[in-house]
Amino acid sequence: MTGGPVALVLAGITFIMTVIWGGPLIRILRRLGVGDSIREEAPERHMSKVGTPTMGGVMFILPVALITILINAVPLIGLSGVGRSVLVPLGAVLAFGFIGAIDDYRKLVQRDIGEGLSPRTKFMIQLVLAAVLAYALRDMLHVPEMYLPGFAAEFNLGWAFYPVAIFIILGAVNAVNFTDGLDGLAGLISATAFATFGGIAALQGQIFLAQFCFSLVGAVFGFLWFNVHPAELIMGDTGASALGAALGVTALMTGHWILLPIIAIIPVSEVLSVILQVGFFKLTGGRRIFKMSPLHLHFELSGWSETQIVQRFWLVSLLFAMIGVALAVL
């Protein structure tokens, strides 16, 4: 069986694994009282989500880690060097997922104020992790530094690759975090982006990366089985940070990170809406561009139902993902 079909089979396997253990995990989280809290300024109908089990990212992180390690067991012990490339995206998932889990846990412990790690502490930890990943990508994996649509040759960025890679990884982490606000939204958008970059990786011959991407797609689909409206659990920072870091690393490994704002148009729009809202608010002394940010809350306050927002955002994401693939193969 060639690499492409194997990637699709892996997606099916991780989907089944996630669905099977998803129910017991939710029951465990409920017994432990791992319930989410909702920001006070959120739309009123979000109050129904209070108490929904959080830290749901564990549901798809563990199956992906298990299947990735098993499928690459022989290459990783030295019989072939190809599979070692999965260590970096897998490490990104585990490391950022762990930091996200600590943040989620602190929010639960400090339920009265609903705050996790301080923004400064969290950013510094993420910055260090992103720097380590940037070094691993360039100096250990020797990934293509940049491809531009219409050009076959790779562009060498030199030392500039490090700040670019750090910015891409941190930007993707925060973008997915801001997207995670409605049932099924972050999972569906992320799965579409990973399928897109997985396809690009397969076209490049990066079979192990493609397999990793589709393993993640299958596991996230399994998570969505429980996360679609009305959600039985929420991925929390545990899942959103892991997905964001993996998305940034995957984009960098293909060399087509310049297409990330297109392929991940919704997460990018979400984080830009927050930046614009905060900046405009400060410059004008209290005026707003949107009714609320991130962007999905603006449309929710404009009268769109949660399901309408998720479906329409996904349609936009799917369209731009196809555009991204077209640009990648020019």
Radius of gyration: 19 Å
What coarse outline follows from CA principal-axis ratios? globular
The quaternary structure here is single chain
Q: How large a portion of the residues is in β-strands, by DSSP E?
A: under 5%
* Topology, number of strands: 0
The stretches of 5 or more residues where confidence is low (pLDDT under 50) are: none
Instruction: Specify the structural class.
Output: mainly alpha
Range of helix content: 55-70%
Tally of helical segments: 13
Tell me the span between the first and last alpha carbons: 28 Å
In round numbers, the mean pLDDT is 90
Search tags:
mainly alpha, 13 helices, 69% helix, 0% strand
What does this 3D model show about the protein?
The structure is a single chain. This protein is an all-alpha fold and 330 residues long. The chain is globular, with a radius of gyration of 19 Å. The two termini are 28 Å apart.
